[in-house]
Design a protein that fits this description.
The chain is 40% helix and 20% strand. It is an alpha/beta fold and 471 residues long. The strands form four sheets. Strands 1, 3, 4, 5, 7, 8 and 10 form a seven-stranded mixed β-sheet that branches. A five-stranded mixed β-sheet has the order 16-15-14-17-18. α3 runs antiparallel to α4.
């Protein structure tokens, strides 16, 4: 089976400019319902296929929604974040324009990471990418409609046969793709074009031999190309996954022999047990296959493989980044300092404010009736348990100071510990926040006890009595 979806939705990637020898100041606007955010958070994506990266300096936004971004020099992929929206932005050399960010046409369904809409004034490579992806979508709809009609018993003999339909669709795609490929100005841009072509080939049902041939002649399949460059490219590893991904779903895989190979630390046996082409590939490509499984279906066998075999450093680094990222916000993760704004306007942190070893946090936003009700029950639980070793915290994720003040006005007493972290994706990631209201419990070591805590009205008191140490 082949995955049709790319790890990166190339049709929402915006191409940005920066000179190769210095920073580039990128001018833009952000338009969101309810007004612009004061800050856009920036994450540099080191491993695009896994969307893993590190946080950078924020972008300040004025009251009208305008901003100026001093993007780092060189080529790079960035995620701009103003929760719940985010935008994937590809920074390229020697290109300029006005960047426009906005919400998507659909409602955001997540607290963090809902894809927004981005576009540039003037001519940009995203235009030919959008065209190609649009052709793919229309082609897939046409194929699906044809098959539905045929399976439903509708007479389709007067219509073109599926072979003829595919030929027409492929010709239309090829015509546009050839023009796009001629415009490639960089390796990354060519990778994205080839990634789209490979996905089209997979969607068209082409044979594995044809897919292998396409990969080999692509900008990504050059045998002299390093895996470090493929992992850093927005399209290269995703293109490889389109052709070779999800290998563990094939019948040729011998799971008993895979486990034996790991037990014996026998690399040749590992490759043989994977079956098919994997018996003959280089070590780095074998590692790329196990990185794929680590992304899509992590389990004890995956962990054992990476602990047992000495895979090439670039792929080990990518796997370790994936492993470490998955620990963030989960049980056992140490959240660290968590800076916030106190009710008096001063800056501080939860660690400074809470002297007790255990911390129970209710994360919420103003304007939610559910959050207001859960806050009342949260206060009642704090009063009833009367634990001296617990700090009860109401954590505000409000987007602006006005909303924060509304949340602050709901304090029952001045003794209630309330802090404001704003619409900060770093805090959301660290605490594993997915919705509001949500309860997070930190133990005496500052580690998350569990992020599946029930809401105050749904059994939080009983869960706390089970996990808190006996007094």
């Amino acid at each position: 089976m082949k995955r049709l979806a790319c790890a990166i939705a190339v049709w929402i990637v915006a191409l940005v400019s920066t000179p190769s020898c210095a920073q580039s100041t990128i001018v833009g606007t952000i338009n969101l319902e309810g007004g612009p955010p004061s800050i856009i958070h920036v994450k540099r994506i080191e491993f695009p296929a896994m969307q893993l990266g590190t946080w950078q300096e924020e972008i300040l936004v004025d009251e009208e929604g305008g901003f100026r971004w001093d993007a780092p020099a060189g080529e790079g992929l960035f995620e701009l974040v103003a929760p719940p929206w985010s935008w994937m932005i590809l920074v390229r050399p020697e290109e300029s324009g006005l960047l426009q960010l906005s919400a998507a046409a659909t409602t955001a369904r997540r607290l963090l990471g809902s894809p927004g809409s981005s576009n540039w004034s003037g001519v940009h490579p995203t235009q030919w990418m959008d065209t190609l992806v649009g052709i793919q979508r229309r082609a897939n709809r046409s194929r699906a409609e044809f098959l539905v009609l045929r399976r439903s018993g509708v007479d389709v003999q007067r219509r073109d046969s599926l072979t003829q339909l595919n030929a027409a669709l492929e010709a239309a795609f090829k015509s546009h793709w050839d023009r796009a490929a001629d415009r490639c100005a960089s390796e990354w841009e060519c990778d994205l074009a080839w990634q789209i072509k490979l996905n089209e080939a997979v969607g068209s049902g082409l044979s594995q031999a044809v897919l292998d041939s396409l990969w080999n002649v692509s900008s990504m399949g050059d045998p002299n190309r390093t895996w470090a460059s493929r992992l850093a490219s927005p399209g290269a590893y995703s293109g490889w996954l389109a052709v070779h991904g999800s290998w563990w779903l094939e019948r040729q895989v011998d799971w008993k022999k895979l486990n034996e190979a790991v037990f014996l630390a026998d690399l040749d046996s590992l490759a043989s047990a994977m079956g098919g082409r994997w018996k003959h590939v280089e070590l780095d490509e074998l590692a790329a296959a196990w990185l794929d499984k680590a992304m899509e279906q992590p389990d004890a066998l995956v962990r054992s493989v990476w602990e047992t075999f000495a895979f090439p450093k670039p792929l080990v680094t990518a796997y370790e980044a994936l492993r470490d990222f998955r620990k963030i916000g989960r049980k056992g993760h140490a959240v660290g300092e968590l800076p916030w704004t106190l009710p008096n306007g001063e800056l501080g942190s939860i660690a400074e404010q809470c002297q007790q070893p255990w911390i129970v946090i209710l994360a919420l936003k103003n304007g939610s009736g559910l959050a207001a009700r859960e806050r009342e029950v949260f206060s009642e639980i704090a009063d009833n348990l009367d634990r001296r070793d617990v700090c009860w915290v109401v954590l505000s994720l409000d987007e602006n100071e006005k909303s924060w003040r509304e949340t602050l006005s709901g304090r029952r007493t001045l003794d209630e510990t309330v802090g404001w972290v704003g619409n900060n994706p770093r805090v959301m990631e660290s605490l594993g926040l997915a919705v509001v209201p949500q309860v997070i419990v930190l133990d005496e070591d500052g580690k998350i006890v569990g992020r599946d805590m029930p809401l105050p009205s749904e059994g939080l008191k009983g869960r706390l009595q089970a996990i808190l140490p006996r007094e």
